[in-house]
Structures are given as C-alpha cells and as structure tokens.
Write the structure tokens for this entry.
Amino acid sequence: MKAYQRVYTRLEGITKATVSLRAQGVSNDELAVVGGRLAQVVRIKGDVVTLQIFSGTEGIPTNAEVTFLGEPPTLKVSEQLSGRFFDAYGHPIDGGPEIEGEERQIGGPSVNPYKRRQPSQLIPTGIAGIDLNNTLVSGQKIPFFADPDQPYNQVMADVALRADVDKIILGGMGLSNDDYLFFRHSFEAAGALDKIICFINTTENPPVERLLVPDMALTAAEYFAVEKNEKVLVLLTDMTLYADALSIVSNRMDQIPSKDSMPGSLYSDLAKIYEKAVQLPTEGSITIIAVTTLNDGDITHAIPDNTGYITEGQLFLRADSDTGKVIIDPFRSLSRLKQLVQNKKTREDHSQVMNASVRLYADAQNAKTKLENGFDLSDYDHRCLAYAKDYARELLAIDVNISITEMLDTAWKLFGKYFTPAETGIKQALIDKYWVK
Amino acid sequence: MKTKGIVTGIVSNLVTVQVDGPVAENEICYILSGGTKLMAEVIKVNGNAASVQVFESTRGLKGGDTVEFEGKMLEITLGPGLLSSVYDGLQNNLATMTEVFLQRGEYTEPLDREKTWDFQPLAKPGDKVEAADWLGDVKEGWLPHKIMVPFSFRGAYTVKSVKEAGAYNVDTVIATLVSEAGEEVPVTMTQKWPVKLAVKGYKEKPRPNRIMETGVRVIDTMNPIAEGGTGFIPGPFGCGKTVLQHAIAKQGDADVIVMAACGERANEVVEIFTEFPQLIDPHTGRHLMERTTIICNTSNMPVAAREASVYTAMTICEYYRAMGLKCLLLADSTSRWAQALREMSNRMEELPGADAFPVDLSAIISNFYARAGMVVLNNGQTGAVTFIGTVSPAGGNLKEPVTESTKKAARCFYALEQNRADQKRYPAVGPLDSYSKYLDYPEIVAYLDQTVEHGWVEKVLHAKNVIRRGKEAAEQINILGDDGVPMSYHVNFWKSELVDFVILQQDAFDAIDALCPLERQRFMLDLVLEICDKDYEFEDFEKCRDFFKNLINELRQMNYSAWQSEQFEAYNNTIKQLIA
C-alpha cells in the first residue's frame, strides 16, 4: 500500500459500466479498486472522476470503498510467462504460481515508424488459399473474416502451429469455454505448450474485462520480440466482441455513437492494437492474426470495415457449395504484403499463376450466373466450371496442406488440363517454362 | 508575459484548462506532467476555460497540472534539408530519434543545424523585395532551393546586404533587409510558418493549363490530372488505393513530392522509405528519395497530430511552390483526418452533423483543397501544388460525408470499384464513374492537342464510349443470353473488354508495364481504337470471343515488352495481321 493512498466512500453516479465520484490528485488512465473490483479512470471533470469498472457495476453500493492505485494496468514480464494461462488482468488461471518479473504498463507507446524494417520473411501455412493467393509475412497483421458458424478458431490454430515462430500468444475475448479448451488441447497435443502464452476472457467473464486482453497479449509479445529478439505470433479472437465492449463503455459515458452504434474512435482504438504488429530492426517481430466475426458475411458493418482499413488484408472464410468445403474466398481475401515475398522467397511464376488462377475462377462465377439464369453455356464456360471445382478442392479448401511449389505445380496442372496458354494471359516466358501439356 | 493555466478536466486527449490570461484559437501550449512537456492546441475557449487537444497520450495527466501557452499557432520550420526527411505530423524528425519506441514529449529538430549548404546570392543591395522574393539559392540535391524573404514579412523591404557565395549552415544570416520604417531585419536560411494558414506571396493563381504525367494509363489517358490540379481516390479497402498512390508518387512528373501518411499503416510508410532510396526518378534519373518528404502520422500515433500532418505537408509543398517548383502532395487518407475531427467534436459534445462528423467538415475540406493550384510568382515564374487525396469511405459506400464533401472540392475523381478489384482488374478505377473535369478545360484540350496528338480528347471520349456501349451490351447479354442477342452485341462487348484489358488495366508490379509514358499511351490508344473502329463478322459468338481473347493476349504481351523493342514490334505486326 502506498503512503498517499486515500479511501473514498461516496459514489455520486453509477451506470452499468462506470461509477463517478469526487476525488483529488487522480491521474488519467490510472487504476482504482471500487468495492473490491478493478476499475480505470476514463474521465476527469473538475474534481469529478469517472471510472470504468471492468467486471461491471452489479451490486456496487454508493458507499463502496474506492482506492486509487496510482498506475495504469500493468503486466509482469519475464521468461516465466511461457507456457502459462492468464485471465484478462494477467493473473494465472492454470493453478501455477504468480509471475515474477519486471512490471510493465500495458498499452504503451508505439514503435517509431522510422525504426521499423520492411517485413520480408515468409510464413508458410500449407493452406494454399493463404500461401498461394494471400501469402503471409512476419510482421503482418491480418484478420480472418468469418461468419460465426465457420471453423475460424480451428484454422487459426492450424496456422499457428504450422508457422515457424518462437512464441504463440493467444488473446481470447469472449471465447466460449469449449473453444478455450479446444485451443488448450490442440496446443498440448502438438507438444507446443512451452511456446504458448494465453490471456483468456471467456463468455463467463464480464465483457468489459475484454478490453484489457489485447494490450496484455501485446505487452507480453513486445517483451519477447524486443528483448529476446523472438518471432512472436499473436492470435486475437474475437475482435468483434472486443469492439462490442468498447461500444458498451462509450455508450455508458454518453458519447454520441457513429456508424452501427460504435464509438467514433473505433478506428483509432483498433489501430492502436493492430499497429503493434512490427518487424523490428533486430530479428524480433510481432505478427498478428485475428478473427473478426461477421453478421451474415456483411463486411460493410463498422467493425469489419474499420478493421479492413487498418489490417494488411483479410482472409475471408466461406462455405463453397460446389465442393461442400470451407474455402478461403479468393475474391474477398487479400494479403497486402504478399508481393514482398512472392517471386522473391517463392518461385518466379508465383504472382502470375496466382492472378491467372483467380481470374479464371472469376470467369467460372460468371458462367455459373449464366447457368442459374437458364442460358446455354459455351465450351469455355464449361471448362471454367470444371476448373473451378478442381481449383476449389485442390487449392482453396482449408484442409489442403502442401508446399508452395506443389501449389504452383497444381495450378499449372489445372491450367494445362482446361485451358490454352492464351486463355490464361500469363507472360510468354513463364508459359514456355512451366506449361503442362 | 506568457499565459498560464491549470488542468481541470481530461477525457482521452481532450483536456480543459483554466487560464489566467488571453489565449487564441489554435494557440499552442505545453502541459507539464511528471517531468515531460506535452504539446497541445487550443480548439475552443469558453470564458476562462480553454479546451485543448493534446498531441500525445494523456496517460498519467492530473487535474491541477500546469500549462504554459506559447502565444503562437502550430508552426513548422522551412529551409534546406526538408527533402528526403521523414517527419511526424508535428515535423519532429523521426530519423534522429534514438529509441525504438516513440518517447512521449520528445520533440526533435526538423533541420540539420550543422550541415553547410553552398549559397549563391540572387539579390543585391538596394533591391526592393517583399515576402517570398528570392534572395539567394542553395543546392538541395539537384534542386535549386531558394532562400526567400520570409512569408510572414509584411510590406516592402530594401536589401541592405547579402552574404557572398560560400558554404553556410542554415542559421547563418544570409541577408539583412531594411523595412519601410527603417528597421533592420536579419534573414537566415530558415523561416517559420503556421501550418493552418495558406502561404501567399504570389501574384496570381491562374487556371491550370497543362497535365501532370503519372505513367498510369487510366489517369493520364482517361482522366488526366492537371499540374496544380486536385483529385481524389475513394475506394473500399483492398481495392488498391495505396498501390495506385505509390505508383503516382514514384512516377509523377514533379520536382518535389510530399507524402502524408495520415492515420494509415506504418508498414506502408516503411515501404516508401525502404524502396524510394533505391528507386530512380524516371524524369530526372536521380534517386526518388532526393525529391521526397514523408510526413508520417500512422494510425497508432496520436489522433490530434493526424489533423496537423496534412497541414504540415501542404505547407511544405507551398514553400517549394514559392521557389517556382512543381510539387505533388499525396495524402493517405483524408478520411482519417476527418475522423480525428469527429473524435474531437464528439468529446467536446458539439451537436453532430451527418454520421456524427462535425457540421463544418465540408468547409474544412474545401478550404484545404483550395490551397493547391498553380501560381504565378512575383517574378513571373510559375510553381504548382498538385494534390491527390485518398478517401476511405465507410463500408465502401460513396454516399458518406467525407466522399461527398471531397467531391465538391476536387476536380478529378478516381472511383475504385469493389467488383473490378474482385476480378483483379487493377488499377480498379471505374471507367464510367470516374472523371476529370480538366478534360472540359479548353486550355487543357489545346495543351493535349499540341503535346500528345491533335484531337486527343475526342479519342479519349471515344474510348470511354466504347466502354459504355460494351457495358450496355453486356447487360443485354446477361438478360437475353448469348444466343438471344445480335452478333453486334458480342462485338461491342469484346471491344470494351479490349479497352479494359489493354488501356485501363496495368500491372503495377511489372517493371515495364508499371510506367507507361505519354508517348506510349498515345501509341496504345491509337492502336486499340484502330481495332475498335473496324467492323467484324463472325459465324458465332464463340469465334468472336476467341478472336478478341487472342488479340487481348497479344496486346497485353505488348504492354509487358520494352517500348519499341523487337519483341514489341513483333507483337504489333501479329496484331496488324490479325485485324487486316
């Protein structure tokens, strides 16, 4: 207990997420304990201080004891974090001991853009919908856009376990208990527990607590990336539930909502998290793979929309009716950093093969529309449709696990099977070298 | 005596301060908190309570912290050394900061104070001068950087003395002027200017009369932007805004390029300062970085400085324009700046306009676009600031306040379309919705007649019409089926595909196709129109499709071949035979 600590016992206002009281010498962002619950200063107006209570205000009386802790939320960082599971406050939930280490404020400053290095290391995942069409690079930030019924957490766990990284840090927000156990078991089964760190807020925990999870995970990530020069992969699921928690708090503070009842600062709030992805001047890097769940595929909603403007692409999961498989949609998916590694860390024909295969897949969609409208299909249309089926099954489906060279060879095989070289529109030099007759 | 104050309220980066003296709108102040000084700007005054937006994180700030007002607005330092620098929105030099993480309250010197520059006098004692007149110049890279009478000087001055040619640092007094009142004023190589005010000091601002070449066909050929003109690129995410902007930055025919990364991704800025030093300016053969200044206020940097960053960038452009140079300002993205305004307006509990943006958004945007333009300087020479901003419309819907306000202010509109991007038809600039109002300017039409080809604009409009007809034909084919329409519909559709694939689409990642000079654009458009103007007969629509697909493929290979190379001519001959 610090010497200047003073106990207040008179709350002047209570909402579902905040309380306000008169207090002196309080600093912005500092933590407080209100009736035994952790809270943070979000507004100071004269001597009236507004506190956001992470676990909700249910049952808090107006005479609850309030003490200020003089500091914003912190996390103790050290090698001891490895292999451990924590709640949103950074307290162990795996029955293990508390962490000893240096205490760091979470949500700290950002990396000087000038000190960053251009990301250049390929992260192969074996999934062709990612590696071939939307290649990932370390230091990238990219979300899965998926409807709630898609197996996004499974795909994310696959990607994490196949990626060649030193640490995997999972930030779970509003995770169902089943999904939490799923992650835990897949990490255990893969024998990867020693490089995993988890910060978990499940649906059983109060929603506002989630606001701490990304910053906790990223503070730990920065420790390993900056201090230990490690390649760190951060998984954040589900960022839609994080944004929902933001809107709850802003609503309780009487802020005017902008689009879709989200706070006007949603873009900056999300950017502060995603921009922690970085390739440091040393070998260390932080890569962020997140999940943003959608309502019925609607990407114009404020949450996916703002996310798309911040992240370096998105991976769009969709059920494919042709093959009955979940595929990575080649039209709506994008990796903005792919050209940093394609044809450089991969074979020279990569980008042209990718573009041609997607263009032909688009032609197949047009043929499909024609078919649905009851028109006769041309020979080309039929070939496109047949190609599309093979392409979806052999390359786009999320259960594919092959090397990038095999993906390219598969694509050339399909081109040769269904098309003439001119129909692919690929540069002649590459056709001469790779065309499969 | 400076006005002082104490902090009485904090919500995020909006702080209310009780002041003890006069304060001005937009005045800069520093909040002293736990050993650091945090810069802030006054945005509202009510009685003796000033609302200030803090350019840094306000974590740890307390009620009762003291505030010092500076008695001036946000200023930047102008002088030799601005080019090839990387600044944040407040002109702190990011390259000279030592820590990997940005330190709060760390403000670094924008210009190198030690470095010496080779000075040549241009004015002589006895000359009558006024603000923005040239006193001498130094070589900044390959550009003659003019040392001017500071923009803030009012009225006429007489040159008393000018330093002789030699190497001096920026703080050396290079001239002494005498005001009409007989007061002597020293002038160094640097001056300061408040970014929110437009730099004047020119004779007139005529209508733009020539185009700025970018090497991007869908801009130069289809919707050219004028030198000193304005344009904007709205588009949903993933449609290629950034790639298009970088292409313009690399290839734009300008002496000076200022890129403002306003609330965007840090990795994109990293791409610029990793790649630009390696790249060569196609027009001068010099390194691109030598003509580039980057203003970098990425999305995770403080929100309030985002707004400042676009003004800082514009002021630097106006400074170089006053030297008679052609400047290009690229701001990505102006929507982030508008959102910063919205966040502040919201915290100040102002009554909101559409989508919770402040009601004066439209006025703020058009004022800013109005700072671009070509000017005639006092000495008769011309300079220009061309401005292209990107807009990130929420949900990709162009019916939103930032897009609508910008549409009123900007003269070129490059609409990026989701369905073109989905089909990987890049750059995804929609051929029918996009426009350049400069094609209606008689002086631009005359300029194109002279520099490209007589009757050029008519050809461009003709190409647009081919696309329009093709789109109509495609709609009919979709409704009636391939067999349900006359053959001419198929021909029209494929002619428009030809224009689309050969002229509109361009591979920004191909070394040759990425940059298409105007001369080559003329050749390709003429060739494509020659094909389109012919009549064709086919037995069935499949033959029609095969014929055009084949042509498109040859023409695309041509785009990938070096200009007038053997290969290029070979494709050209094949095409001529195909249409003979």
User: Anything to note?
Assistant: Chain B touches chain A through 80 residues (CB under 8 Å). The CA atoms of residues 490 and 542 of chain B lie 9 Å apart. Chain B has 14 helices and 25 strands.
